[in-house]
Amino acid sequence: MSEQEQLRSIRERIDGIDRELMRLISERAGCAQTVAQIKRAGGSGDDFYRPEREAQVLRQVKDANPGPLDGETLARLFREIMSACLALEAPLKVAFLGPEGTYTHAAVLKHFGQDVQLAPMASLGEVFRDVEAGSCPYGVVPIENSTEGVVNHTLDLFVQSPLHVCGEILLRIHHHLLSRETTLGTVRRVYAHQQALAQCRRWLDANLPQAERVALSSNAEAAQRASQEAGAAAIAGDTAEALYDLTGLKRNIEDHPDNTTRFLVIGRQAVIPPSGVDKTSVLVSTSNRPGALHRLLTPLAHNDVSMSRIESRPSRCVNWEYVYFLDIEGHSEDPKVKQALAGLRQESELFRILGAYPRAVL
């Protein structure tokens, strides 16, 4: 068999596989529509997003992956199929810190897929208020960065908010130098968010020491400025590059290649069923007395429950008293976690489970 005959045979097979894929995806979409009809008929409401179910599906895809595509790639493909099917059930609107083109925008797309309805907000406070008011069923907010630390404003908003944590998103942050210019030598000014400038300081010192550095409210705003000014460049990500039609003069200029930001999905309803691989976030406070924090955390150790993060913020009620934010491994309904939380509640003056939710899959 000649080379052309071999290629023709393989291409015909690919065409057949594509037709079968379309049939199966359409069948899956039809099942999603049936789910919506059953829920509406049964009075289950219009909230069709099930974080624990989606996490289970994506983990199953990764675990059952036969290759040659890697598990992350295959899970991303299924993420988009699930997003499109969910949009058939009911359009999902998500609030986030805008404008479009920010890393939070990228986090929304990573977690919810391309078929989500975007609702960019001017501040984190507006994201919380919009979800609390029910204008958007869910929001996405940054909580911590692996190099810059915790986002204190997000923690402070949780203290006063009744919202729940419904999920988490881990986004690897790759900073690119974007511009209308074609060479580094013509860049006279670099726009970026203050944190992005800090995270690329060494690269900028070595490669653009003479360029003015201008801090803006977001990297998306930086990309917009760079798209309109000669001699300007922006530090931003792939989403902003495509949105503002810029050229990547240099990619991955961050000083720490493992730079990652963690985001939380917030909503009015708690995620009740465990997914199997979960976290629980808790807000607690205790009086300022010797050994108070030790006693507060002892129930975790006694029940062999691991704590992955602890942060403190001023209570703003009494001077020198603090509230603590804890992330612990496991779901609040797991027996060991449940027992540990009961002990934690006894030692606390303020105790609130912010959410028990699936750990990030992608």
Write the layout of secondary structure elements.
Blueprint lengths: L2 H39 L9 H14 L6 H19 L3 E5 L5 H10 L4 E5 L2 H10 L4 E8 L3 E2 L1 H9 L3 E9 L3 E4 L9 E5 H6 L1 H7 L4 E5 L2 H10 L3 E5 L1 H6 L3 E4 L9 E8 L10 E8 L6 H11 L4 E8 L7 E8 L5 H12 L3 E9 L4
Helix pairs in contact: 1-3, 2-3, 11-12
GO molecular function: chorismate mutase activity; prephenate dehydratase activity
Catalytic activity: chorismate = prephenate; prephenate + H(+) = 3-phenylpyruvate + CO2 + H2O
GO cellular component, one term: cytoplasm
Task: Give an overview of the whole structure.
By secondary structure, the chain is α/β, with parallel strands linked by helices. The chain folds into 4 domains: 3-88, Chorismate mutase (Chorismate Mutase Domain, subunit A), CATH 1.20.59.10; 92-173 and 260-266, D-Maltodextrin-Binding Protein, domain 2 (3-Layer(aba) Sandwich), CATH 3.40.190; 176-250, Periplasmic binding protein-like II (D-Maltodextrin-Binding Protein, domain 2, 3-Layer(aba) Sandwich), CATH 3.40.190; 271-358, ACT domain (Alpha-Beta Plaits, 2-Layer Sandwich). The protein contains 12 helices and 15 strands. It has helices at 3-41, 51-64, 71-89, 103-112, 124-133, 152-160, 194-199, 201-207, 219-228, 238-243, 292-302, 335-346; strands at 93-97, 117-121, 138-145, 149-150, 164-172, 176-179, 189-193, 212-216, 232-236, 247-250, 260-267, 278-285, 307-314, 322-329, 350-358. Strands 1, 2, 3, 4, 5 and 11 form a 6-stranded mixed sheet that branches. Residues 1-93 form the Chorismate mutase domain.
